[in-house]
Amino acid sequence: MIPDFGTAANALLFLLLIPLVLFYFLKLKRPRLEIPSLVLWRQVLADARVNAPFQKFKRNLLLLLQVLLLSFTVLAAMQPFIRGRRGGIDRLAVLIDNSASMAAVSEAGGGSSLDAAVRRIDALIDGLPPGHEACIVSFSSGASLRCGFTDNRRVLRDALHSIRVEDVPGSSEDALRMVQAMSRTAPVREVVLVSDGNFEAVTDMELSFDLNFQKLPPPGPNLGITEFNASRSFSGGWDVFAVVQASADSRNAARLQISADSDSLMSETVFPAPGESQRIALRIPGEKPLTVSAVLVPDGFDSLSSDNAAYLDLPAQRPLAVYVPPSMTAFRRAFRSMGDVLLYPSDDSPGGIPAYDLVVSNVPADVDKPAACALFVGFVPPALGSMVAIQKDAGTGVVDWHKTAPLLRHVELADILLLDDPEFLPGILAGDVENAGFQVLVHGRHGPLLVERTTGPGRAFFMLFDTDRSTLPWRVGFPVMASNLRLLTMQVIGLADAVALRTGVLPALDSPAGLPWHIDGPAGYSRDAVAGPDGRLAGIPAPMVGVYDFKSADNTFPVGAALLSMDESSLATISEVHFNELSVSAGTVPMPSPRALWFPLGVVAFTFLLAEWWYFHRRPGGSVQ
Amino acid sequence: MDPEIIIPADSAGRSGPPPPAAGHLTRLIENEALERLRMLRLKPTGRFTNKSRGEHVSGRRGQSNDFSDYRNYVSGDDIRFVDWNIFARLHRPFLKLYRQEEELHVVVLIDASSSMMFEGKFALAQSLGAAFGVMGLCGMEKVSVFAFNSTAASPLYLRPCRGRSGMARLFRFIESIESGGDAPVDAAVERFLKNHSGRGVAVILSDFLTFGELVRPMNLLFGAGLELFAVQILGPSEIDPELTGDVRFVDAENGRTLDVSSSGDLIRIYREYRADYERRISDLCKARGGRFLSLASSDPFAWIVFDVLRRRGWIE
Lengths: 625, 316
Hints:
heterodimer, A: alpha+beta, Rossmann fold, Immunoglobulin-like, nine-stranded mixed β-sheet, seven-stranded mixed β-sheet, 12 helices, disordered C terminus, B: alpha/beta, 2 domains, 27% strand, elongated, disordered N terminus
């Protein structure tokens, strides 16, 4: 194996051999010893030279030691190293997985997978040849550049050891794309990806570098909560569901404890089969808002602890406040037949209430009524006034509609007749409507019949025809659509179902615009944020599982975030990453790192120095007389 | 003296044996050893004798008392040598023949070059030279001594002397030899033979450490009718050297230098080469009817003369 040299230019130091040899022969002073005759010795030396090819050097052992000392010193100064594999790695990108599964341990009290990855990369940094650069990118749900390309090992190590596990699912795509973007400015020949293999197996990208996938040994068995949600029960309460997932090698049982505001609701033993999941359900009343938490207590060793808790906020159940003007008798009749709906204006409240959950109106001025959800009928929204015009009494029909849209689920619109015919103004296409912030849900013969506003607060739908001038109210689909609208509204305001929050980035929270907040979280998490001008506090990261306390001047409330990832809890790993044109197999053996040789060479040179010192200071001369 | 040249302590100040103690004939040999030497004789294997009459029995017929053979009487033979007892029994005259006693020339060549100045090598060479001379003189042989030290200076030469009366001359000459010089043994032998006549025994006392070839002087000695008694004297450190570190050897005779660094194999190769060198000299001597003996300068004189030389049949 031929070594490479980090600083080959130092080979010029070999020129020092010339003055060394010259000075040696100029300065060498052997002790003189008079003997009777050289007859025997001359022949002996001749024979000895024949027998020993290096006898000439033996004659000048001191010179030989000095030459070897200088040679090994120069070689050490050239910083030789043996590459760990073929080809050079001038710029090495190191990707390290710090997703939730990397916190898994193989035994109680043992090191985590992240610790093993750090050790492996530490060795890689130690063997980094001089002048060669490396960068470190960590990835969990996203990617983070920990350290740009540098040959400073201390900087690399500091960046490496600052990486902590984030309790979020892992995905390598962002990290690979980041390195690919970095390689556009300076070529990256090889990328080392160190992970437990718990990330997506297929990545939709083309590699522009060699990927070395270093797979870590699998951790121990694990049980974890992967789903925790609730849906409105028919009785007006909540049906809470929890799913416990077992890893492929799990043989343990666990106790799932569900409690609400420190009151235990359930404690049940779960014993999912290896690689399978077990679903637990319970019903709880919905009269008041509840914060429900689920804690999994494994009976035996559990390699990952971050997936053993989940939090669910359940609002109090209440009727929907729906505004429908008295003139829209068909809609009022449809909503009146539904339960848990308060229809306005009513006899008790002829003037209505300040805010509604749902507004259904054919009055353009009602567009400004505050509501979580709205459906406007018979007019074109102001934003589309320059694109669509309604031709009265032109007559039209439905050409196509989005059958999967929540509003139109199970709604048949094929045979309805419409007197109003909305049509695109000349030069306007459907794409222009979308660019204006609307999605066309129902297409007519000459223009859109139903659009959904995709921008702004809440959800708003616009029917560009008058339902009373169509056959829609007499179709079965009409009450179905009204029911869909009610359900959609309940979902928007959170009364239909609730899902436990996942780690990563917390959903936007309603807040007075410009209100400062301070958030304290698990593991010393602390952060300040200010609500935006739209009245929403958004973009709050939640990297760890636990409860985050939101505090403002006059309000405090907790928000729990949990891992809830079947991929992470199952600890399922991949052995091959598939890209568009190739697949990369994982290597389980640690990557051979370049081996620096300057230290052993320095030791050899020091040994020669000691030998020369001994040789020079020993008793001079011989005893031949 | 160059301060960096290391001279062994026992070779720096003297070039021969210590002065004789009171009552001793010579400082070279103790009186007791001298008495024992008078009883010993050289025992050459060859018959390199001179025609002149001596006390050494030769292979030829002569006038000694040692019976050799019988032959028929022929007219003109001296009737004094007829064996009358045989004539009385056989009634035929037979002439009784006797061995010829001839003179043996004992030449002692002493290496006095600088290489012999180490570790008492020259002192032992002086003592052995005196011993061989004493044995020759006591055997009524003709004894001469040739000492060589420097190629530039004339060699020292003791002209042949006979009988016990020559013992004092012999001792004085050997005691007066000054050591130090660059004369190699091969060149010295050739130089000696130019002025030498007579057959006999040539005793060479040297370390035989020469860059020259020893074959030619051996051949010349053999051709001159001299049986070779080669005695190699080496110092203990030449036989078993110890070497540490880098050192520059300086040849004591010619000042040449050689840089040597210690290594594990070097001493082993030296020992092997020295043993091989001794074997080669021994083979050269034996091939020419001579004898070879390697000694350490630390070997006791009495042990060498009265034990080693007698057991090896050099003397009797």
